[in-house]
Amino acid sequence: MIESDIARLESEGFALLQTRVLVDGAMSHRLRKPARLSMLQARAHLRQELGKPADFNHYYRPNKDAANPPACKGSACPAREMLDWPQATSGCGTPPLIGMVDTGLNPDHAVFADAAIELHRIGPKANASGLIHGTAVASLLVGDPTSRTPGLVPGARLIAVDAFHKAKSDERMDAFSLIEALDLLAQKGVRIINLSFAGPENAALAEQLRALDHQGIVLVAAAGNSGPAAKPAYPAAYDFVVAVTAVDRRSQIYRRANRGEHIDLAAPGVEVWTATSVSGARTQTGTSFAAPFVTAAAALLLQKNPQMTPSEVRRALENGATDLGRQGPDAVFGHGLIAPPNPCS
């Protein structure tokens, strides 16, 4: 929007709360509607007046299962073993820069002693998010390979953006903060972004994610944990985002995973061994913890061939997957269980 647009909206009772200039020069604005308009009326008015993808400031939440008994003990049961994950890849090309948007994480955890992590916080320090979810996801990506929670691509650099906050017991991120976090990662030059959270469809978010895809950034998202009858969750359900569901060590689907024709790939996500927020490790369950396996597999592809486009990466991952369920792609497992490429072969 230009200044005249803002002035006109303010004259109509809208209030400008925040503005961000995105990396491509576009402007992101957060507005408060006038009391005389409902939320639906305000959105329709903005879309009609401005011709832009205005939408609600939706909330997005981490995809973890709170009821998760730690049945697995120590490094005797890492989920990576079921995938035959390549062990030595450090001498074969340079890993791409990986980004993640998540809750906070503990960079001082022993599992990150040798990891290259750059952490950013979006929003006020008050009511900051917890460290559990972000630490777990980051440990799956770049954790110490000799620890109980070995990272899948420990040699990669990770830029993590904490855009979540707590509202009483609810840990959530609004769409405006998410767009700002994604823009920061684009400015940093990441090639892959891990999105282990879910929420509703949002027009402004979709426009930005589509632009990131066109810029050559691979987008990987958790499918969601709302159950097989739930509506598609976003951003996973966008067709330019790799939607990842979760399976257990027998390749059986996680009972609470979302389903749908948008599901692309399956990865371990039930009782996955991860780092905890302060020290030590425990198991975690949810599609949040399946997404990093696909993010890491995409990283290995780009390590071997940095010129690959996001669509080429998606196609290679799908073509290499091990078919599960009924023959061919389906609404439960997508194209099947991720098969990690080896950049050294």
UniProtKB/TrEMBL annotation:
Entry-linked InterPro entries: Peptidase_S8/S53_dom (IPR000209), Peptidase_S8/S53_dom_sf (IPR036852), Peptidase_S8_His-AS (IPR022398), Peptidase_S8_Ser-AS (IPR023828), Peptidase_S8_subtilisin-like (IPR050131), Peptidase_S8_subtilisin-rel (IPR015500)
Name of the molecule in the record: S8 family serine peptidase
SUPFAM superfamilies: Subtilisin-like (SSF52743)
Family: Belongs to the peptidase S8 family.
Sorted UniProt keywords: Hydrolase, Protease, Serine protease
PANTHER family for this protein: CEREVISIN-RELATED, PEPTIDASE S8
Residue ranges of coiled coil: none
Pfam family, any one: Peptidase_S8
Keyword Metal-binding among record annotations: no
Residues at the catalytic site: D102 (charge relay system), H133 (charge relay system), S288 (charge relay system)
Limits of the Peptidase S8/S53 domain: 96-336
